[in-house]
Design brief:
0% strand
């Protein structure tokens, strides 16, 4: 359990010191390449913006965190429920209740659809990745035919 706490603390420190403006300069990885779904299809995934939202939350910039992903706190709650399921009656109830799990999934999908309609394809984090594998393949076939 100590190693898990150390790993979580290390991620917390990395999120706090992360500089999104210099990300490409330091790590030479574009944001569109971090997500395998966006890299492959070009479309943002339902969790798109979650990392940036957590980074902004750790910096106490909650307005920007909610902009990047309004449900950024949900994975933390689910993680806590999984960790505490044998130690807390409430966590155990949530963990074993299928209706609550389906409600979480429904809310997540509904928020994804709303964000897709409102933000795609012009606003971060819902921009389209024109360097995606799918787009390159479709462009190749378009040029052939």
């Amino acid at each position: 359990m100590k190693i898990l706490k150390f790993i979580l603390l290390a991620f917390l420190v990395l999120f706090i010191i992360y500089d999104s403006k210099n990300h490409l300069k330091y790590y030479n990885i574009e944001i569109g390449e971090l997500c395998l779904i966006k890299r492959t299809t070009g479309f943002p995934c339902p969790a798109c913006g979650m990392t940036r939202a957590h980074i902004e939350a750790f910096r106490l910039n909650f307005k920007k965190a909610f902009y990047y992903h309004p449900l950024f706190i949900l994975p933390s709650i689910i993680f806590a429920v999984i960790i505490l399921r044998n130690k807390s009656k409430t966590a155990d109830y949530i963990y074993n209740n299928k209706y609550i799990i389906f409600a979480f999934l429904f809310i997540f999908v509904a928020v994804y659809i709303v964000r897709f309609v409102l933000l795609f394809p012009d606003k971060e984090p819902f921009t389209y990745n024109y360097d995606s594998n799918l787009y390159i393949i479709l462009k190749f076939f378009k040029n052939i035919f």
